[in-house]
Protein backbone atom coordinates (compact mmCIF):
# COMPACT_ATOMS: atom_id res chain seq x y z
CA UNK A 1 0.00 0.00 0.00
CA UNK A 2 1.39 3.40 -0.93
CA UNK A 3 0.48 6.55 0.99
CA UNK A 4 2.22 9.69 -0.27
CA UNK A 5 5.88 8.66 -0.28
CA UNK A 6 5.28 6.02 2.37
CA UNK A 7 5.12 2.31 1.47
CA UNK A 8 3.42 -0.19 3.76
CA UNK A 9 3.61 -3.94 3.26
CA UNK A 10 1.14 -6.34 4.89
CA UNK A 11 2.16 -9.96 5.42
CA UNK A 12 -0.57 -12.53 5.97
CA UNK A 13 1.38 -15.67 5.10
CA UNK A 14 3.00 -17.42 8.06
CA UNK A 15 5.87 -18.82 5.97
CA UNK A 16 6.73 -15.42 4.55
CA UNK A 17 6.58 -14.04 8.10
CA UNK A 18 9.00 -16.75 9.27
CA UNK A 19 11.44 -16.04 6.45
CA UNK A 20 11.36 -12.32 7.14
CA UNK A 21 11.35 -12.20 10.93
CA UNK A 22 13.25 -15.32 11.94
CA UNK A 23 15.42 -16.38 9.01
CA UNK A 24 15.90 -12.81 7.85
CA UNK A 25 17.46 -12.06 11.25
CA UNK A 26 17.77 -8.32 11.67
CA UNK A 27 16.79 -7.17 8.17
CA UNK A 28 13.25 -6.33 9.27
CA UNK A 29 13.92 -5.57 12.93
CA UNK A 30 13.84 -1.79 12.81
CA UNK A 31 10.89 0.47 13.63
CA UNK A 32 9.62 3.09 11.18
CA UNK A 33 10.95 6.58 11.91
CA UNK A 34 8.32 8.76 13.49
CA UNK A 35 9.97 11.75 11.88
CA UNK A 36 9.78 13.85 15.01
CA UNK A 37 12.49 13.24 17.55
CA UNK A 38 11.35 16.13 19.77
CA UNK A 39 11.45 15.76 23.52
CA UNK A 40 7.70 15.19 23.77
CA UNK A 41 7.88 12.17 21.49
CA UNK A 42 10.09 10.41 24.05
CA UNK A 43 9.00 7.04 22.81
CA UNK A 44 11.97 6.67 20.49
CA UNK A 45 13.81 5.89 23.75
CA UNK A 46 11.67 3.04 24.99
CA UNK A 47 12.03 -0.54 23.75
CA UNK A 48 9.20 -0.73 21.25
CA UNK A 49 10.00 2.64 19.65
CA UNK A 50 13.80 2.38 19.61
CA UNK A 51 15.59 1.84 16.34
CA UNK A 52 17.43 -1.48 16.13
CA UNK A 53 20.82 -0.91 17.75
CA UNK A 54 22.85 -1.01 20.99
CA UNK A 55 20.48 1.14 23.08
CA UNK A 56 17.47 -0.99 22.09
CA UNK A 57 19.45 -4.18 22.83
CA UNK A 58 20.45 -2.90 26.26
CA UNK A 59 17.00 -1.85 27.47
CA UNK A 60 15.33 -4.89 25.92
CA UNK A 61 17.76 -7.28 27.63
CA UNK A 62 17.11 -5.55 30.90
CA UNK A 63 13.34 -6.06 30.63
CA UNK A 64 13.75 -9.65 29.43
CA UNK A 65 15.93 -10.52 32.42
CA UNK A 66 13.51 -8.75 34.75
CA UNK A 67 10.53 -10.81 33.57
CA UNK A 68 12.43 -14.04 32.81
CA UNK A 69 10.48 -16.65 34.61
CA UNK A 70 12.60 -19.03 36.53
CA UNK A 71 10.39 -20.58 39.23
CA UNK A 72 12.19 -18.56 41.89
CA UNK A 73 11.63 -15.26 40.06
CA UNK A 74 7.99 -16.08 39.38
CA UNK A 75 7.53 -16.84 43.07
CA UNK A 76 8.75 -13.35 44.04
CA UNK A 77 5.56 -11.67 42.92
CA UNK A 78 3.22 -14.53 43.90
CA UNK A 79 1.85 -12.66 46.95
CA UNK A 80 1.07 -9.65 44.74
CA UNK A 81 -0.71 -11.84 42.19
CA UNK A 82 -2.72 -13.40 44.96
CA UNK A 83 -3.59 -10.01 46.48
CA UNK A 84 -4.95 -8.53 43.24
CA UNK A 85 -6.92 -11.63 42.27
CA UNK A 86 -8.34 -11.81 45.81
CA UNK A 87 -9.69 -8.34 45.02
CA UNK A 88 -11.46 -9.52 41.83
CA UNK A 89 -12.94 -12.60 43.50
CA UNK A 90 -14.16 -10.48 46.42
CA UNK A 91 -15.83 -7.94 44.10
CA UNK A 92 -17.45 -10.66 42.01
CA UNK A 93 -18.79 -12.52 45.02
CA UNK A 94 -20.19 -9.27 46.33
CA UNK A 95 -22.45 -9.28 43.26
CA UNK A 96 -23.00 -13.03 43.12
CA UNK A 97 -25.84 -14.14 40.82
CA UNK A 98 -26.08 -10.70 39.21
CA UNK A 99 -24.71 -9.79 35.77
CA UNK A 100 -21.33 -8.16 36.32
CA UNK A 101 -19.16 -6.24 33.86
CA UNK A 102 -15.86 -8.05 34.16
CA UNK A 103 -13.43 -5.83 32.20
CA UNK A 104 -12.94 -2.99 34.70
CA UNK A 105 -12.20 -5.49 37.48
CA UNK A 106 -9.66 -7.39 35.40
CA UNK A 107 -8.07 -4.21 34.14
CA UNK A 108 -7.65 -2.63 37.54
CA UNK A 109 -6.22 -5.82 39.04
CA UNK A 110 -3.69 -6.20 36.22
CA UNK A 111 -2.75 -2.53 36.37
CA UNK A 112 -2.25 -2.65 40.12
CA UNK A 113 -0.05 -5.74 39.77
CA UNK A 114 2.11 -4.14 37.07
CA UNK A 115 2.41 -0.87 39.03
CA UNK A 116 3.74 -2.91 41.92
CA UNK A 117 6.15 -4.83 39.67
CA UNK A 118 7.25 -1.57 38.10
CA UNK A 119 7.76 0.64 41.16
CA UNK A 120 7.69 -1.78 44.09
CA UNK A 121 5.06 0.40 45.76
CA UNK A 122 1.40 -0.08 46.57
CA UNK A 123 -0.55 3.04 45.68
CA UNK A 124 -3.84 4.25 47.12
CA UNK A 125 -7.02 3.72 45.11
CA UNK A 126 -7.11 7.43 44.27
CA UNK A 127 -3.54 7.42 42.98
CA UNK A 128 -4.17 4.26 40.94
CA UNK A 129 -7.29 5.87 39.44
CA UNK A 130 -5.25 8.86 38.31
CA UNK A 131 -2.31 6.89 36.88
CA UNK A 132 -4.56 4.38 35.11
CA UNK A 133 -6.47 7.21 33.40
CA UNK A 134 -3.22 8.99 32.59
CA UNK A 135 -1.75 5.89 30.96
CA UNK A 136 -4.78 5.65 28.71
CA UNK A 137 -4.32 9.29 27.67
CA UNK A 138 -0.67 8.55 26.91
CA UNK A 139 -1.67 5.63 24.68
CA UNK A 140 -4.27 7.75 22.90
CA UNK A 141 -1.68 10.46 22.29
CA UNK A 142 0.96 8.04 21.05
CA UNK A 143 -1.54 6.54 18.61
CA UNK A 144 -2.79 9.92 17.44
CA UNK A 145 0.67 11.33 16.79
CA UNK A 146 2.53 8.17 15.78
CA UNK A 147 2.20 8.71 12.05
CA UNK A 148 3.19 11.98 10.41
CA UNK A 149 3.61 13.82 13.75
CA UNK A 150 4.85 17.03 12.18
CA UNK A 151 1.58 17.25 10.27
CA UNK A 152 -0.76 15.93 12.97
CA UNK A 153 0.70 18.31 15.58
CA UNK A 154 -0.23 21.22 13.33
CA UNK A 155 -3.66 19.84 12.48
CA UNK A 156 -4.61 19.16 16.10
CA UNK A 157 -2.72 21.76 18.18
CA UNK A 158 -5.05 21.54 21.19
CA UNK A 159 -4.85 17.78 21.30
CA UNK A 160 -1.11 17.99 21.02
CA UNK A 161 -0.95 20.48 23.90
CA UNK A 162 -3.13 18.17 26.02
CA UNK A 163 -0.84 15.26 25.21
CA UNK A 164 2.26 17.23 26.25
CA UNK A 165 0.53 18.18 29.53
CA UNK A 166 -0.33 14.52 30.13
CA UNK A 167 3.28 13.47 29.62
CA UNK A 168 4.48 16.16 32.01
CA UNK A 169 2.01 15.03 34.67
CA UNK A 170 3.15 11.45 34.10
CA UNK A 171 6.76 12.51 34.69
CA UNK A 172 5.75 14.37 37.87
CA UNK A 173 4.17 11.19 39.25
CA UNK A 174 6.73 8.67 38.01
CA UNK A 175 9.95 10.50 38.90
CA UNK A 176 9.55 10.25 42.69
CA UNK A 177 8.36 6.63 42.36
CA UNK A 178 11.50 5.78 40.37
CA UNK A 179 13.78 7.54 42.88
CA UNK A 180 12.03 5.73 45.74
CA UNK A 181 12.61 2.37 44.01
CA UNK A 182 16.34 2.81 44.69
CA UNK A 183 15.71 3.00 48.42
CA UNK A 184 13.37 0.03 48.73
CA UNK A 185 16.00 -2.45 49.63
CA UNK A 186 18.61 0.01 50.81
CA UNK A 187 17.01 -0.29 54.25
CA UNK A 188 18.87 -3.54 54.77
CA UNK A 189 16.18 -6.07 55.57
CA UNK A 190 15.89 -7.90 52.27
CA UNK A 191 13.50 -10.46 53.70
CA UNK A 192 10.77 -7.95 54.40
CA UNK A 193 11.39 -5.58 51.49
CA UNK A 194 9.50 -5.62 48.19
CA UNK A 195 11.07 -7.80 45.47
CA UNK A 196 13.37 -5.96 43.02
CA UNK A 197 11.18 -3.87 40.75
CA UNK A 198 11.58 -2.72 37.14
CA UNK A 199 12.36 0.90 38.05
CA UNK A 200 15.19 -0.27 40.26
CA UNK A 201 16.71 -2.23 37.40
CA UNK A 202 16.52 0.88 35.19
CA UNK A 203 18.50 2.89 37.72
CA UNK A 204 21.33 0.38 37.49
CA UNK A 205 21.62 0.50 33.68
CA UNK A 206 24.71 2.11 32.17
CA UNK A 207 24.71 2.93 28.46
CA UNK A 208 28.17 1.65 27.49
CA UNK A 209 28.07 3.11 23.98
CA UNK A 210 27.39 6.58 25.32
CA UNK A 211 30.21 6.98 27.84
CA UNK A 212 28.71 4.62 30.40
CA UNK A 213 26.03 7.14 31.30
CA UNK A 214 22.96 6.24 33.37
CA UNK A 215 19.51 6.50 31.77
CA UNK A 216 18.01 9.98 31.70
CA UNK A 217 14.86 10.59 33.71
CA UNK A 218 12.85 10.92 30.49
CA UNK A 219 14.09 7.54 29.33
CA UNK A 220 13.28 5.86 32.64
CA UNK A 221 9.78 7.41 32.70
CA UNK A 222 9.15 6.32 29.13
CA UNK A 223 10.32 2.76 29.84
CA UNK A 224 8.10 2.51 32.94
CA UNK A 225 5.15 3.81 30.93
CA UNK A 226 5.78 1.16 28.28
CA UNK A 227 6.02 -1.57 30.94
CA UNK A 228 2.58 -0.61 32.27
CA UNK A 229 0.91 -0.17 28.90
CA UNK A 230 2.61 -3.20 27.32
CA UNK A 231 1.30 -5.59 29.93
CA UNK A 232 -2.09 -4.23 30.96
CA UNK A 233 -4.40 -4.01 27.94
CA UNK A 234 -2.94 -7.01 26.12
CA UNK A 235 -3.24 -9.44 29.01
CA UNK A 236 -6.58 -8.11 30.24
CA UNK A 237 -8.07 -8.37 26.76
CA UNK A 238 -6.88 -11.95 26.45
CA UNK A 239 -8.37 -12.97 29.80
CA UNK A 240 -11.72 -11.34 29.00
CA UNK A 241 -11.94 -13.30 25.71
CA UNK A 242 -11.02 -16.54 27.46
CA UNK A 243 -13.64 -16.04 30.19
CA UNK A 244 -16.24 -15.30 27.51
CA UNK A 245 -15.34 -18.55 25.71
CA UNK A 246 -15.64 -20.41 29.01
CA UNK A 247 -19.14 -18.99 29.54
CA UNK A 248 -20.08 -20.16 26.05
CA UNK A 249 -18.47 -23.59 26.55
CA UNK A 250 -19.55 -24.98 29.96
CA UNK A 251 -17.96 -28.35 29.09
CA UNK A 252 -14.52 -26.78 28.64
CA UNK A 253 -15.03 -24.75 31.81
CA UNK A 254 -15.90 -27.91 33.79
CA UNK A 255 -12.83 -29.75 32.49
CA UNK A 256 -10.61 -26.80 33.35
CA UNK A 257 -12.16 -26.53 36.80
CA UNK A 258 -11.44 -30.19 37.38
CA UNK A 259 -7.79 -29.71 36.44
CA UNK A 260 -7.17 -26.60 38.52
CA UNK A 261 -8.84 -28.05 41.59
CA UNK A 262 -6.87 -31.27 41.23
CA UNK A 263 -3.60 -29.38 41.19
CA UNK A 264 -2.11 -30.45 44.48
CA UNK A 265 -0.33 -27.34 45.58
CA UNK A 266 -1.41 -23.70 45.64
CA UNK A 267 -1.60 -22.21 42.12
CA UNK A 268 0.39 -19.18 43.27
CA UNK A 269 3.43 -21.29 42.61
CA UNK A 270 4.61 -21.21 39.02
CA UNK A 271 5.56 -24.90 39.17
CA UNK A 272 1.90 -25.77 39.68
CA UNK A 273 0.80 -23.80 36.66
CA UNK A 274 3.35 -25.74 34.62
CA UNK A 275 1.66 -28.93 35.70
CA UNK A 276 -1.69 -27.93 34.21
CA UNK A 277 -1.61 -28.81 30.52
CA UNK A 278 -5.29 -28.08 29.95
CA UNK A 279 -4.96 -24.60 31.44
CA UNK A 280 -2.01 -23.94 29.14
CA UNK A 281 -4.06 -25.25 26.19
CA UNK A 282 -6.98 -22.93 27.07
CA UNK A 283 -4.65 -19.89 27.18
CA UNK A 284 -2.92 -20.86 23.91
CA UNK A 285 -6.31 -21.32 22.25
CA UNK A 286 -7.28 -17.86 23.53
CA UNK A 287 -4.09 -16.42 22.02
CA UNK A 288 -4.67 -18.20 18.70
CA UNK A 289 -8.32 -17.26 18.24
CA UNK A 290 -8.29 -13.90 20.00
CA UNK A 291 -4.78 -12.44 19.76
CA UNK A 292 -4.91 -9.15 21.68
CA UNK A 293 -3.16 -7.33 18.84
CA UNK A 294 -4.32 -8.26 15.37
CA UNK A 295 -1.11 -6.77 13.91
CA UNK A 296 2.32 -6.69 15.54
CA UNK A 297 3.83 -3.23 15.97
CA UNK A 298 5.02 -1.92 12.60
CA UNK A 299 8.48 -3.11 11.56
CA UNK A 300 10.82 -1.35 9.17
CA UNK A 301 13.44 -2.53 6.72
CA UNK A 302 16.88 -1.57 8.01
CA UNK A 303 19.32 -2.68 5.33
CA UNK A 304 20.62 -0.09 2.93
CA UNK A 305 20.43 -2.63 0.15
CA UNK A 306 16.97 -3.43 -1.07
CA UNK A 307 15.68 -6.67 0.42
CA UNK A 308 13.11 -9.17 -0.77
CA UNK A 309 9.94 -10.31 0.92
CA UNK A 310 7.39 -12.69 -0.61
CA UNK A 311 8.72 -11.96 -4.10
CA UNK A 312 8.71 -8.17 -3.72
CA UNK A 313 11.70 -5.92 -3.29
CA UNK A 314 11.43 -3.38 -0.52
CA UNK A 315 13.59 -0.37 0.28
CA UNK A 316 15.12 0.75 3.55
CA UNK A 317 12.51 2.34 5.80
CA UNK A 318 9.55 0.51 4.24
CA UNK A 319 6.95 -0.29 6.89
CA UNK A 320 5.97 -3.92 7.39
CA UNK A 321 2.89 -5.16 9.19
CA UNK A 322 2.17 -8.78 10.05
CA UNK A 323 -1.41 -10.00 10.20
CA UNK A 324 -1.33 -11.98 13.42
CA UNK A 325 -5.06 -12.71 13.64
CA UNK A 326 -5.22 -14.06 10.07
CA UNK A 327 -2.38 -16.48 10.77
CA UNK A 328 -3.99 -17.88 13.92
CA UNK A 329 -7.24 -18.46 12.03
CA UNK A 330 -5.79 -19.84 8.82
CA UNK A 331 -7.94 -22.87 7.86
CA UNK A 332 -5.02 -24.45 6.00
CA UNK A 333 -3.15 -24.73 9.32
CA UNK A 334 -5.95 -25.13 11.87
CA UNK A 335 -8.96 -27.45 11.68
CA UNK A 336 -12.27 -25.74 12.51
CA UNK A 337 -10.12 -22.61 12.79
CA UNK A 338 -12.96 -20.38 14.03
CA UNK A 339 -13.90 -22.68 16.91
CA UNK A 340 -12.57 -22.55 20.45
CA UNK A 341 -11.03 -26.01 20.92
CA UNK A 342 -8.22 -26.09 23.50
CA UNK A 343 -7.76 -29.84 22.84
CA UNK A 344 -5.89 -28.97 19.65
CA UNK A 345 -2.93 -28.02 21.89
CA UNK A 346 -2.88 -31.38 23.68
CA UNK A 347 -1.13 -34.57 22.53
CA UNK A 348 -2.27 -35.56 19.06
CA UNK A 349 -3.71 -32.13 18.22
CA UNK A 350 -2.34 -30.02 15.38
CA UNK A 351 -1.10 -27.43 17.86
CA UNK A 352 0.45 -29.78 20.40
CA UNK A 353 4.04 -28.93 19.54
CA UNK A 354 3.41 -25.27 18.71
CA UNK A 355 6.39 -23.01 19.25
CA UNK A 356 4.98 -19.75 20.56
CA UNK A 357 8.28 -17.97 19.84
CA UNK A 358 8.08 -19.02 16.17
CA UNK A 359 11.78 -19.94 16.04
CA UNK A 360 11.29 -23.29 14.32
CA UNK A 361 8.12 -22.46 12.41
CA UNK A 362 5.30 -19.94 12.71
CA UNK A 363 1.81 -21.39 13.13
CA UNK A 364 0.57 -18.47 15.21
CA UNK A 365 2.44 -15.38 16.40
CA UNK A 366 0.41 -13.55 19.06
CA UNK A 367 3.64 -12.13 20.51
CA UNK A 368 5.36 -11.51 17.18
CA UNK A 369 8.50 -13.45 16.27
CA UNK A 370 12.22 -12.90 15.79
CA UNK A 371 14.30 -10.13 17.31
CA UNK A 372 11.39 -7.80 18.06
CA UNK A 373 9.19 -10.49 19.58
CA UNK A 374 7.44 -9.39 22.76
CA UNK A 375 10.01 -9.60 25.57
CA UNK A 376 7.18 -9.84 28.13
CA UNK A 377 5.54 -12.92 26.60
CA UNK A 378 6.28 -15.31 29.43
CA UNK A 379 4.99 -12.79 31.96
CA UNK A 380 1.84 -12.23 29.88
CA UNK A 381 1.22 -15.97 29.74
CA UNK A 382 1.89 -16.43 33.45
CA UNK A 383 -0.58 -13.68 34.32
CA UNK A 384 -3.24 -15.04 31.96
CA UNK A 385 -2.82 -18.58 33.30
CA UNK A 386 -2.82 -17.44 36.91
CA UNK A 387 -5.91 -15.20 36.59
CA UNK A 388 -7.92 -17.76 34.61
CA UNK A 389 -7.01 -20.58 37.03
CA UNK A 390 -8.01 -18.50 40.03
CA UNK A 391 -11.29 -17.29 38.49
CA UNK A 392 -12.37 -20.77 37.46
CA UNK A 393 -11.24 -22.50 40.64
CA UNK A 394 -13.34 -20.30 42.89
CA UNK A 395 -16.26 -19.27 40.71
CA UNK A 396 -18.63 -20.82 38.24
CA UNK A 397 -19.14 -18.57 35.21
CA UNK A 398 -22.61 -18.32 33.69
CA UNK A 399 -24.32 -16.17 31.02
CA UNK A 400 -25.73 -12.86 32.34
CA UNK A 401 -29.28 -14.26 32.53
CA UNK A 402 -30.55 -17.82 32.75
CA UNK A 403 -32.37 -17.50 29.44
CA UNK A 404 -29.57 -15.46 27.78
CA UNK A 405 -28.23 -16.48 24.41
CA UNK A 406 -24.51 -17.05 23.94
CA UNK A 407 -22.12 -14.26 24.79
CA UNK A 408 -21.64 -12.04 21.74
CA UNK A 409 -18.09 -12.50 20.42
CA UNK A 410 -18.08 -9.58 17.96
CA UNK A 411 -14.72 -7.80 17.87
CA UNK A 412 -13.92 -4.13 18.10
CA UNK A 413 -10.58 -2.52 17.38
CA UNK A 414 -9.17 -0.34 20.14
CA UNK A 415 -5.49 -0.45 21.17
CA UNK A 416 -6.18 -4.15 21.35
CA UNK A 417 -8.89 -6.24 19.70
CA UNK A 418 -11.62 -5.96 22.30
CA UNK A 419 -15.01 -7.61 22.74
CA UNK A 420 -17.41 -5.11 21.16
CA UNK A 421 -19.91 -5.81 23.90
CA UNK A 422 -17.82 -6.17 27.04
CA UNK A 423 -18.30 -9.47 28.84
CA UNK A 424 -21.10 -9.52 31.37
CA UNK A 425 -21.37 -12.72 33.36
CA UNK A 426 -23.02 -14.11 36.47
CA UNK A 427 -20.79 -15.90 38.89
CA UNK A 428 -21.60 -18.44 41.57
CA UNK A 429 -19.15 -19.40 44.31
CA UNK A 430 -17.90 -22.94 43.99
CA UNK A 431 -17.52 -25.17 47.01
CA UNK A 432 -14.09 -24.46 48.39
CA UNK A 433 -11.57 -27.25 48.33
CA UNK A 434 -9.27 -27.23 51.33
C1 LIG B 1 -0.80 -11.42 26.51
C2 LIG B 1 0.07 -10.47 26.70
C3 LIG B 1 0.89 -9.81 25.60
C4 LIG B 1 0.75 -9.84 24.24
C5 LIG B 1 -0.28 -10.58 23.41
C6 LIG B 1 1.82 -9.02 23.69
C7 LIG B 1 2.02 -8.82 22.32
C8 LIG B 1 3.08 -8.10 21.80
C9 LIG B 1 3.31 -7.93 20.38
C10 LIG B 1 2.48 -8.53 19.26
C11 LIG B 1 4.42 -7.15 20.25
C12 LIG B 1 5.04 -6.65 18.94
C13 LIG B 1 6.10 -7.60 18.44
C14 LIG B 1 6.73 -7.11 17.17
O1 LIG B 1 6.80 -5.90 16.93
O2 LIG B 1 7.14 -7.95 16.35
C15 LIG B 1 4.89 -6.82 21.57
C16 LIG B 1 6.01 -6.06 21.84
C17 LIG B 1 6.37 -5.68 23.09
N1 LIG B 1 5.79 -6.07 24.29
FE1 LIG B 1 4.25 -7.35 24.51
N2 LIG B 1 2.56 -8.51 24.70
C18 LIG B 1 2.03 -8.97 25.89
C19 LIG B 1 2.51 -8.71 27.17
C20 LIG B 1 3.57 -7.88 27.46
C21 LIG B 1 4.07 -7.62 28.78
C22 LIG B 1 3.53 -8.26 30.05
C23 LIG B 1 5.10 -6.73 28.64
C24 LIG B 1 5.98 -6.11 29.69
C25 LIG B 1 5.77 -6.11 30.94
C26 LIG B 1 5.26 -6.45 27.22
C27 LIG B 1 6.19 -5.58 26.68
C28 LIG B 1 6.46 -5.46 25.31
C29 LIG B 1 7.53 -4.63 24.77
C30 LIG B 1 8.52 -3.78 25.56
C31 LIG B 1 7.50 -4.79 23.37
C32 LIG B 1 8.43 -4.15 22.32
C33 LIG B 1 9.54 -5.14 21.89
C34 LIG B 1 10.55 -4.54 20.92
O3 LIG B 1 10.23 -3.64 20.16
O4 LIG B 1 11.70 -5.04 20.89
N3 LIG B 1 4.31 -7.15 26.54
N4 LIG B 1 4.05 -7.42 22.50
TrEMBL record:
Pfam families: p450
Binding positions (heme): 374
Residue spans crossing the bilayer: none
Metal-binding among keywords: yes
InterPro entries documented for this protein: Cyt_P450, Cyt_P450_CS, Cyt_P450_E_grp-I, Cyt_P450_sf, Plant_metabolite_P450s
Major localization class: membrane
UniProt membrane topology term: Single-pass membrane protein
Molecular function via GO: heme binding; iron ion binding; monooxygenase activity; oxidoreductase activity, acting on paired donors, with incorporation or reduction of molecular oxygen
An example Gene Ontology CC term for this record: membrane
Cofactor: heme
Localization in the cell: Membrane
SUPFAM superfamilies (UniProt xref): Cytochrome P450 (SSF48264)
Superkingdom: Eukaryota
This protein's UniProt keywords: Heme, Iron, Membrane, Metal-binding, Monooxygenase, Oxidoreductase, Signal, Transmembrane, Transmembrane helix
Cross-referenced CDD domains: CYP77_89 (cd11075)
Family as reported in the entry's similarity comment: Belongs to the cytochrome P450 family.
Protein name: Cytochrome P450
Biological source species: Brachypodium distachyon
Organism taxonomic ancestry: Eukaryota, Viridiplantae, Streptophyta, Embryophyta, Tracheophyta
Amino acid sequence: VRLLRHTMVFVADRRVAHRALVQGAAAFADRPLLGDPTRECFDRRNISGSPYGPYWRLVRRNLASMVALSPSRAALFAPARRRVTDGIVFELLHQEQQPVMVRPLLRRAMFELLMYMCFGAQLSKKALDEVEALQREVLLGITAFASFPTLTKRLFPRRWAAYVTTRRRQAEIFEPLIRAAACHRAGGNDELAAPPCYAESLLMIRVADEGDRPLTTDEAVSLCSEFLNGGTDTTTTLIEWIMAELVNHPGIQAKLHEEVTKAKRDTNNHGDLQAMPYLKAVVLEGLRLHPPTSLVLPHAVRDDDNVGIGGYTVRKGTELNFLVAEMGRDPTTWTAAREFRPERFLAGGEGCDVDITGSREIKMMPFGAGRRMCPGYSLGMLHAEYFVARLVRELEWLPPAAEAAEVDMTEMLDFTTLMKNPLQARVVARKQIV
